[in-house]
Amino acid sequence: MRSHSLVIRGLIGCALICLVVPIQTIAEVSDEDFAKLKSTVEDLSTEVQTLKTTHAEDQATIQKLQQKENKTEETATTAQQEATAATAAATAAAAATPAPAAISTHDFMVVGDAEVQFGQVIHPSQHAAFTLADFAPIFLFRTSDNVLFETGFDVTLSNNAPNSSGYTTNIDLSFATLDYMYNDYLTALLGQILLPLGTYSERGAGWLNKFPDDPLPRQILPENGAGIELRGALPLGDQGQSLTYALFGVNGPSSVDSSSNASQLDLFGNVGTQSNGVQGNLHEHPAGGGRIGWFYPWKPHYDVEVGISGEFGPWDNNENSLWYAAVVDAAVHVSPYVEIKGEYMNTWVQTSDMGTIQPRGWWIQGGYKLAGLNLDVPFVSNLELVARYDTIKDGLLEGMGSGTDRITGGLVYYITNTLWFEGDYEWLHSYGPNALPSQAYILQMSYGF
Amino acid sequence: MPTPDHRNRRNFWLSGSGAALIAGIFFALTHPTHCAGGDGKTEKQADTSTSNTAQTQKLSGQDLYTINCSRCHTERYPREWTPGQWKTLMMHMRVRANIPADQAREILKYMQEESGN
């Protein structure tokens, strides 16, 4: 019975195994398949390892990029903060300081001077009187950086007595030029030109002159002329020194009646259009001339300037006679308080009736500002004492000619930097047919604007 | 009638002045052109124009103003005029007083800066 039950149990066990175990697992695995499977597993393992390595490298790269990104963000934040601060500062500065006004390309302005005189020639038949009201505007019109038109007038009164009543207003055109600044060294002037014979005509306007009247010998030189001038300055050294030049061609002196008689010399006419409407120079050739100057300052308020100038040209209509002029000028400043300057001039006039005559003269003047005494007294500190000696000879033959030597003493009181009171007393030694009175005084108010 | 001596003398002077005029024009043409008004562009050009220019600028505009202007007239204060008017005035004074262009520009710069306008 017992062996029979064992058989039964064995059969039941086999049946259960057959039911539970799949048929394939039961199938047998060959060595070749196992080797393939093993190789595949090894390949997969290698790939997994490679991927792990790549992943680790990617993680490192990502970390670095994140660090860089953080730094960039930090820099951008700082820059933005700085930009904001700079903008705020610029806005505050702009609000505190107004923007400079733009300089216009065109400009028109009026400068000049005005004088009123009261004086008397010491003579039994003459009384003190207001003798002059002079308005001398200068109009300046700038049309570009290198073109300027400038013109100056002298508007004065003259008494019509004793021949008629009333007065006449005189308007003289001192100069009217178109200035073209070609470059740093050359400027061309066209029109009615202040002639650079010495420096007085260019720098001796009423407001600039420390005496109410002009030096006598300036009468023998023309003040201006119609024509063209080339001028400029060359800097020398590093302390403000310069060499200046001026060359001009103008119609020049002429003859009143076309002859070359000595009495007919006209230094101030010949502007091109005659009273009868005829246009053109009264003689064929123009006059020419120029000036060379040297300015040497060794420090502010201390300087020397010397110059030599001249002009020549025909003066009668037939060009039989020439007129020459030579001028030497000099000026010295020693401190803000001392000034000395003067001119020597000689002219030669060829005439048909008197040969060659030589009108000539010279003047020298000095000034001392009492502010140099350091007295700290307002009235005294505003005073300048001035003195002048000038002389003129008309160059005619002995017995026919006239001449004058004059000594002038005076003062200037500076009310402001542009408003002055001037007073001077003159002693004259004069001879000849055109002798002048022996003494005179002149008081003047001058205003420069 | 003019004598031969007069004619010769006249021809001598006319020839001499003509030669001087031509020499002056030649000199001017061989130098670079600068504007004369003193604006910023001109100043920059002047800074590098010549060695003389650079040397002259060692003096300040105020020094050059005192040196050039006080020899003829009393002081004019910068605030008397606007910058544009100073430009016009300095063109006038550069011509009238024959002030070197670079010095005139330095003076103009000083007057404009101090004008307060």
How would you describe what is shown here?
The complex is a heterodimer of chains A (449) and B (117). Chain A has 449 residues and is α+β, with helices and mostly antiparallel strands. Chain A has two domains: 34-95; 107-448, Porin. Chain A is 21% helix and 46% strand. Chain A has four helices and 19 strands. Chain A has helices at 2-20, 31-96, 200-203, 378-381, and strands at 107-121, 129-142, 147-159, 167-183, 186-194, 224-236, 241-250, 254-255, 265-266, 287-299, 302-314, 322-334, 338-350, 356-357, 360-369, 383-393, 403-414, 419-431, 439-448. A 16-stranded antiparallel beta barrel of chain A has the order 1-2-3-4-5-6-7-10-11-12-13-15-16-17-18-19. In chain A, strands 8-9 form a two-stranded antiparallel sheet. In chain A, strand 13 and strand 14 form a beta hairpin. The longest helix of chain B has 26 residues, at 4-29. The model of chain B is unreliable at 28-56 (pLDDT under 50). Chain B has 117 residues and is mainly α. Chain B has helices spanning 4-29, 40-47, 51-56, 61-69, 83-96, 101-114.
Key structural traits:
heterodimer, A: 449 residues, Porin, 16-stranded antiparallel β-barrel, two-stranded antiparallel sheet, 4 helices, elongated, B: 117 residues, mainly alpha, 6 helices, 0% strand, globular
Radius of gyration of chain A over alpha carbons? 51 Å
List the quaternary state of the chains: heterodimer
Overall mean pLDDT score of chain A?
Answer: 89
Q: Approximately what portion of the residues of chain B adopt beta-strand conformation?
A: under 5%
Averaged pLDDT of chain B, please?
71
> How many structural domains does the protein architecture of chain B include?
2
Q: Please tally the helical runs of chain A, counting DSSP H or I stretches of 4 or more residues.
A: 4
- Separation of the first and last Cα atoms of chain B: 64 Å
Any idea what the shape of chain A is? elongated
Head-to-tail CA distance between termini of chain A: 158 Å
Q: Main beta sheet of chain B: strand number and arrangement?
A: none
- Give the structural class of chain A: alpha+beta
What portion of the residues of chain A fall into strands of 2 or more residues?
over 45%
CATH architecture of the largest domain in chain A: Beta Barrel
Please outline the major beta sheet of chain A. 16 strands, antiparallel, barrel
In total, the number of domains of chain A comes to 2
Largest interface: A-B, 70 and 66 residues
